[in-house]
Write a structure and sequence with these properties.
The complex is a heterotetramer. By secondary structure, chain B is mostly helical. Chain B is built from 20 helices and two strands. Chain D is mainly alpha-helical. Helices cover about 70% and strands about 5% of the residues of chain D. Chain D is built from 25 helices and two strands. Classes of the chains: A mainly alpha, B mainly alpha, C mainly alpha, D mainly alpha. Chains in contact: A-C, A-D, B-D, C-D. At the A-C interface, helix 1, helix 2, helix 3, helix 4 and helix 5 of A face helix 1, helix 2 and helix 3 of C. Chain A: It catalyses: a quinone + NADH + 5 H(+)(in) = a quinol + NAD(+) + 4 H(+)(out).
């Protein structure tokens, strides 16, 4: 129990700290590295929540593929422009944004503490997750069964979306003469 | 039965088909468009024959109405029906569209789009005349606006953009108010009829003629709803002071478009008053009748005086058109068989006469490239047959006894006089300035001594000022024919109108005087 | 740990992402902030999936992942092509839509 | 009978349609055949009808037949029908008979005009419209005919449509006639609103309440005053002389302008219900008679003299009708049709012979050259002056007699005044007619010796008159040498002779009671009894006084004219300084006053409204509203900073608001 609390607190602090790092570093490469860390910590959270498959996918796709892409672009653009050196045309944005952000997090926390309770049980049509994990001997298989039975159509639509995105990236990336 | 739908959608589909034509085949485009309009005219004639064989009653005959569920929970159905009043207006629209398309052969630019828009406009107007669901009515009402906007803004004169924008803004402000009115009407009707009755926009149910759900609206609600509806119709007619778009639009649009707008589209406004405002809000209409009557009378005399001094041919005709429409409005709000029957008859007459005048003015403008009255003079010797045609149309417009304009105006004013002597006298007074400005129009062009210089004289020297051609003659010939026919023998059309009119006006109860 | 704790972490990360979008002018970092927001939501999905004992939450996370991948692909391509034409990637410079 | 009367209507219409559509391409003979044929056949049919009618008993003479159903709306239902009764038959004979003579005459008068076909088409159209007016059996078709004769008049006045003065005259005539139509329309509305009918039979049998009857009759009289050129709506008739002279003879003397007289006679049962309206009719008639005669005294254009004379004579007719003697009005209508047509045609012959000259100052001494015209003109002048035993004497005598009878019967002093006006006007009539006659025929020819000074004076006085050269080439004035003046061709002189004969004998259809033949009154006994039954009887002694005085006034007028103009017409330039003369010469400045009071302000109002209310207020207002939106959008658009981050901030703000709302709600 205590281990769980300790690990949660450590993870939470680390995640939040690296997340702040993402938006605080001047250098985009540092931000990207910090983001990778955040994503890894999140994957640990998923593990803690017994979502093995998602945790792996998170690392493979996010930390692996997407962030590589990010780093690639960041290094390609090699933006040595210092953001702070440029004149900030809307200086009040920073303060107002920060203030609103604080209000948001405060209000959300208040809501979560006072109002949010898990009242429902399992959604009626879905099987119990834990039962499925035992039935299918593992989280991945349970996930696969659900994906290819209940969520086949969204899954296919997603694949279509990715194809379109690839084509779009190709079009944008093409050098126009 | 799909017959009414076919009547409405045929021009629309035809117009869409036109768009697939190659752009260069100009002649083929023109003739196809004309053929489409003619086929539509034949369809309408079939409709007339069907109607005439039928016992005359509204909203019951199976051939002459159709209804399909569309969004039943919102009371929205695709339902159409025809009775004597809409029948004559449908016939008028089909006739005028045919004539105006035939008169548009001179249009050179983007002929494909032009013809398609003309046909779309026809569909819109036919839909307005045939719809018997308020939502459908509104849709067709807006459908009219789109082609009218493009026709005006694309093929108009120098100030076409200004005119088109003004037209659209005036019209759409009015029609949005009507939309609000339509939604509110359904709500209040449901409220009045009771919870078991659904929300409905079906005209027959709102009129309490065909339904067990009877809801009578309170007089306050009626008044506000009437004002919302009237906003749309008053702009379209137009009643003063909502007429400011008209002189610009009518003078800038190409002549066939003006003819169609003035001849057929202005009738949709009056039709709205007649078909929706009066039966739906019988008490409010009677309360507010003095308002509409005043606007109409002021409009009649005001626009007549304005027409006296216009220097632009088409503006003069535009103001004269508003002035004459005022007489129709007066007739409508007299609430008796003569006034209202005369008003409907005069809608047809006004459509024919105004269209003829605008078309003839267009022929003239095409020859001389000017609309200024002061450029003309003494042309009767050069273009005698055009002068004759224009003379006939002008005489019909000023209400010469024996021609169609007289028949309708006489009957309307007779009705007005019966219901209110003062209004009758004031309305009748208009014949004097009407004669004055129409003669000024005719004499200014055709009589008097020819100008020594100027645009017109130049076109005479060039030889471009020719008399009416056979093609042009066949364009206006049907209109002139009807000018005589309705003047001499109006009984037929009046016979078609009157039974339906009396049926429709039953809701007015004792206020409707035979 | 109670659900609320996870959700609060999720809310905090989300807010950090929001603030990042608002205060940074480098589009790459704005993009990363958006990723932060997506991941914050993912966290709450997974947490809820766990506590509600349903696989549906994880399914959403999976879909969000794929959508995020597609979004990043297109977004980065956009950024690259903007950089090619303007040689400047300050979002405040991209204000041609000013009224 | 129905068929026949219908053909009287249809034949001229057919003539009009054929000539109108194809006349342009027809040879002269074909045009004449159709034009004459249509009118001639109509006259023949009318005559046959008339003989038929004479053979039936008096009670059966009224024949109303429905031709077709015109319209119905609610309780309003109307058929187009033809009513043939003695009154319409009398009118029919006059219209088609005089019309035929003038058709024949026109062939000569208009021979050189390229628009001959058009002229005959219009003439046939006029005959059609007039027949329609006369045989209509409802007020509505009366109105139709009423409007159509107005149109015919308009077309014929403006026949030479490139002459500015002709166009202006035509427009004026039409608009003033429309005022009359307005009166008639309102009268019809009132009749229908009160009685629910529009056919003569029902309406004339209906009893209206006193005020309504007066209103209806006064409105009807507005129509009559406009059509028959009575005060205050007479202004168009003198200007209408711009039309070709046969038109003036047919429309503006013999037939159309008498439509008002016909209408009053036709609706006499209504007028009998309102003594006020009748008094107005009589009063206006009398005043107009005197007023127009006074203007006629000083006119120089021979057609204008005749035009004012026509107005004056129409005044007589209304005077008769105003004292219940409708038959007397119709009687004068008939005789006037004869002698005034004769006078106009004579004037036309003179104008024709002089190559378009209408100014009396350039005539004189024509007796020697134009013998037939001179003799017939003299007969006409004598007839209108009321010299026994010519037609005018009888009818004028009957009118004056019945005015005096009314005066004695009612004891109202105003009827004595009216009677005196009648006598005085008779004298004035004789004076100006013989001033005209001597001016044309006596003395020596002045056409060749017009001095430059006179010419200038003429140009100044007649600057709005016809000096423009027409396309038709007819009216431009050529000074013709005396020896070159020739008598008009036979086609023109024959109608003159026939009309002269009619002017001599036409009076004998009236009553000869004065001369010991109490049973002899063919016209009165032919006409319905209602048209004379209400008139007061005059004792024989008083009748002799009236007759004698009117005869004396006529002789006196002729004598004075002989005294002043017997040796020829002399234009007295010193008269120009006389303000009274100027006042009368300029027709009491009525046209100018009307222009200043009515026409100019209305046009100014129209221009002002176009510019300010339409332009600045309405157009400007709608533009102003668009400016408001334009301006406010200029402010609001600053919100669109273009910074994407700003928009994101906006979104966040919205999210925070929503979340805080839920947090606050708990």
């Amino acid at each position: 129990m205590t281990f769980e609390i300790v690990s949660f607190v450590v993870l939470a602090v680390a995640t939040v700290a690296t997340a702040i790092g993402v938006i605080a570093f001047k250098n985009a490469i540092h931000s990207a590295l910090s983001l990778i860390l955040t994503l890894l910590f999140l994957a640990l959270f998923y593990l803690q929540l017994q979502a093995m498959f998602i945790a792996v996918v998170q690392i493979l796709i996010y930390a692996g593929a997407i962030m590589v892409l990010f780093l690639f672009v960041v290094t390609m653009l090699a933006s040595d422009q210092d953001e702070l050196a440029l004149r900030n045309q809307i200086p009040w944005q920073r303060m107002v944004g920060g203030l609103l952000g604080l209000i948001l997090v405060a209000a959300l926390s208040y809501l979560l503490f006072t109002g949010a309770q898990v009242t429902g049980t399992t959604a009626s049509h879905a099987e119990s997750l834990k039962q499925a994990i035992t039935t299918y001997q593992g989280d991945t298989q349970a996930f696969g069964m659900a994906l290819f039975h209940g969520f086949l159509f969204p899954f296919e639509v997603t694949s279509l979306l990715i194809v379109v995105a690839i084509l779009g990236a190709l079009v944008f990336g093409r050098r126009t003469n | 039965m799909f017959f009414l739908s076919a009547v409405i959608t045929f021009p629309l589909l035809g117009g869409l088909a036109l768009l697939f034509f190659p752009r260069e085949r100009v002649t083929a485009l023109r003739w196809t468009a004309l053929t489409l309009a003619l086929v539509e005219l034949v369809l309408v004639i079939v409709l007339i024959l069907t109607y005439l064989q039928h016992t005359i009653s509204i909203f019951s005959s199976s051939y002459l109405s159709e209804s399909w569920s569309w969004l039943p929970s919102l009371g929205i159905n695709y339902s159409l029906s025809v009775d004597g009043i809409s029948l004559v207006l449908v016939a008028l629209t089909a006739l005028l569209t045919t004539v105006c398309i035939a008169a548009s052969f001179r249009i050179e630019r983007k002929i494909k789009n032009y013809m398609a828009f003309m046909l779309l406009l026809e569909s819109g107007m036919l839909g307005v005349f045939l719809a018997s669901n308020l939502f459908l009515f509104y849709i067709f009402w807006e459908v009219m606006l789109i082609p009218a906007y493009f026709l005006l803004g694309t093929w108009g004169g120098e100030r076409r953009i200004y005119a088109a924008l003004k037209f659209v803004i005036y019209t759409s402000v009015g029609s949005f108010l009507m939309l609000v009115g339509i939604i509110a009407l359904g709500y209040y009707h449901q409220l009045a009829a009771g919870v078991n009755c659904g929300y409905t926009l079906e005209l027959s149910q709102l009129l309490n003629t065909a339904s067990s759900c009877r809801g009578v609206l309170g007089s306050d609600i009626q008044t506000w709803l009437l004002l919302a509806f009237a906003a749309a119709f008053a702009v379209k007619v137009p009643l003063i002071p909502f007429h400011s778009w008209l002189p610009d639009a009518y003078s800038e649009a190409p002549a066939p478009v003006t003819a169609l707008l003035a001849g057929a589209m202005s009738k949709t406004g009056i039709y709205g008053f007649l078909r929706l405002c009066i039966p739906l809000f019988p008490q409010a209409v009677q309360t507010l009748a003095p308002l509409f009557n005043t606007l109409a009378v002021v409009g009649i005399l005001y626009c007549a005086v304005l027409a006296l001094t216009q220097t632009d041919l088409k503006r003069l005709l535009g103001y004269s058109s508003i002035s004459h429409l005022g007489v129709i409005m007066l007739g409508l709000f007299s609430f008796n068989a003569q006034g209202m029957g005369g008003a409907v008859l005069q809608m047809v007459n006004h459509g024919i006469t105004t269209a003829a005048l605008f078309l003839l003015a267009g022929f003239l403008e095409y020859r001389t490239n000017t609309r200024r009255l002061s450029d003309y003079g003494g042309l009767a010797a050069r273009i005698p047959w055009l002068a004759v045609a224009m003379g006939i149309a002008a005489l019909s417009s000023l209400g010469l006894p024996g021609l169609n304009g007289f028949t309708g105006e006489f009957l309307s004013l007779l009705g007005v006089f019966r219901s209110n002597v003062t209004l009758g006298v004031l309305g009748t007074l208009v014949v004097v300035p009407a004669a004055w400005y129409m003669l000024r129009f005719f004499i200014g062009i055709m009589w008097g001594s020819p100008r020594q210089d100027g645009v017109v004289t130049a076109s005479i020297r060039k030889g471009s000022l020719r008399d009416i051609s056979w093609k042009e003659f066949w364009v206006v010939a049907p209109l002139l024919l009807f000018i005589f026919y309705i003047g001499i023998q109006p009984a037929f059309i009046a016979g078609v109108i009157n039974p339906s009119l009396i049926n429709t006006m039953q809701v007015l109860g004792n206020a409707f005087a035979r | 740990m109670p659900l609320t704790a996870y959700l609060i972490v999720s809310a905090v990360i989300f807010t950090i992402g929001v603030i990042g979008v608002l205060i940074r002018r480098n589009p790459l970092i704005i993009f990363m902030s958006i990723e932060l927001m997506l991941n914050a939501v993912n966290l709450s999905f997974v947490a809820l999936s766990h506590f509600l004992d349903s696989v549906d939450g994880q399914m959403f996370v999976f879909l969000v992942l794929t959508v995020a991948a597609a979004e990043v692909v297109v977004g980065l391509a956009l950024i690259v092509s903007i950089f090619r034409t303007r040689h400047n990637i300050d979002v405040d410079e991209m204000n041609v839509l000013r009224g | 009978m129905t068929n026949l009367s219908l053909w009287v209507l249809v034949l001229p219409l057919l003539g009009f349609i054929i000539l109108g559509l194809m006349g342009r391409f027809m040879p002269r003979t074909a045009i004449l055949t159709i034009g004459w044929g249509a009118c001639g056949l109509a006259f023949l049919l009318a005559a046959v009808n008339f003989i038929n009618m004479l053979s039936t008993s008096a009670a059966q003479r009224s024949n109303d037949s429905v031709i077709y159903h015109w319209i119905s709306a609610g309780t309003f239902s109307l058929d187009f029908g033809a009513l043939l009764d003695p009154l319409s038959m009398t009118m029919l004979l006059v219209v088609t008979g005089v019309g035929l003579l003038i058709h024949i005459y026109s062939a000569g008068y208009m021979a050189d005009d390229p628009g001959l076909w058009r002229f005959f088409a219009y003439l046939n159209f006029f005959i059609f419209a007039m027949v329609l007016l006369v045989i209509a059996d409802t007020f509505l078709f009366l109105l139709v005919g009423w409007g159509l004769v107005g149109l015919a008049s308009y077309l014929l006045i403006g026949f030479w449509y490139q002459r500015r003065s002709a166009v202006a005259a035509a427009q004026k005539a039409f608009v003033i006639n429309i005022i009359g139509d307005l009166g008639l329309m309102l009268a019809i509305f009132l009749i229908f609103a009160q009685s629910g009918h529009l056919d003569y039979g029902s309406v004339l049998a209906h009893t209206f309440s006193g005020g309504t009857a007066t209103a209806i009759c006064l409105l009807l009289f507005v129509a009559c005053a406009a059509k028959s050129a009575q005060l205050p709506l007479y202004m168009w008739l003198p200007d209408a002389m711009e039309g070709p002279t046969p038109v003036s003879a047919l429309i503006h003397a013999a037939t159309m302008v008498t439509a008002g007289v016909y209408l009053v006679a036709r609706t006499s049962p209504l007028f009998e219900q309102s003594s006020v309206a009748l008094a107005v009719v009589a009063g206006i008639g009398g005043v107009t008679a005197l007023y127009a005669a006074s203007i006629a005294l000083v006119q120089l254009d021979i057609k204008r003299v005749l035009a004012y004379s026509t107005i004056s004579q129409l005044g007589y007719m209304f005077m008769a009708e105003g004292v219940h003697n409708y038959a007397g009005g119709i009687f004068h209508l008939v005789t006037h049709a004869f002698f005034k047509a004769l006078l106009f045609l004579g004037a036309g012959a003179i104008i024709h012979a002089l190559g378009g000259e209408q100014d009396m100052r350039k005539m004189g001494g024509l007796w020697g050259r134009l013998r037939i015209t001179g003799v017939t003109f003299l007969i006409g002048a004598l007839a209108i002056s009321g010299i026994i035993p010519l037609a005018g004497f009888w009818s004028k005598d009957e009118i004056l007699g019945s005015v005096l009878a009314q005066a004695t019967a009612s004891g109202n002093v105003w009827y004595y005044v009216l009677w005196i006006i009648g006598i005085v006007t008779a004298g004035l009539t004789a004076f100006y007619m013989f001033r005209l006659f001597f001016g044309i025929f006596a003395g020596s020819y002045r056409g060749e010796t017009a001095t430059a000074a006179e010419h200038n004076a003429e140009v100044n006085e007649a600057k709005d008159e016809n000096t423009l050269v027409t396309a038709a080439g007819h009216q431009h004035t050529v000074h013709i040498r005396y020896s070159a003046i020739h008598e008009v061709p036979r086609v023109m002189s024959t109608p003159l002779i026939i009309l002269a004969v009619l002017s001599v004998v036409g009076g004998f259809i009236g009553s000869l009671a004065l001369f010991g033949l109490p049973g002899w009154s063919p016209l009165t006994s032919f006409l319905p009894s209602g048209l004379h039954a209400h008139a007061a009887d005059l004792p024989l002694g008083l009748a002799w006084i009236s007759t004698g005085l009117s005869l004396l006034a006529g002789v006196l007028g002729i004598g004075l004219a002989w005294r002043f103009y017997g040796k020829g017409f002399g234009y007295k330039t010193q008269m120009q300084g006389n303000p009274l003369y100027q006042l009368v010469f300029h027709k009491y400045y009525v046209d100018e006053a009307l222009n200043a009071v009515l026409v100019t302000p209305i046009l100014a109002l129209g221009r002002g409204l176009t510019r300010y209310l339409e332009g600045d207020v309405l157009d400007g207002g709608s533009r102003g509203i668009s400016m408001v939106f334009h301006g406010s959008s200029a402010v609001i658009r600053r919100v669109q900073t273009g910074y994407m981050r700003n928009y994101a901030l906006g979104i966040l703000f919205g999210v925070v608001v929503i979340v805080v709302y839920y947090a606050m709600r708990g």
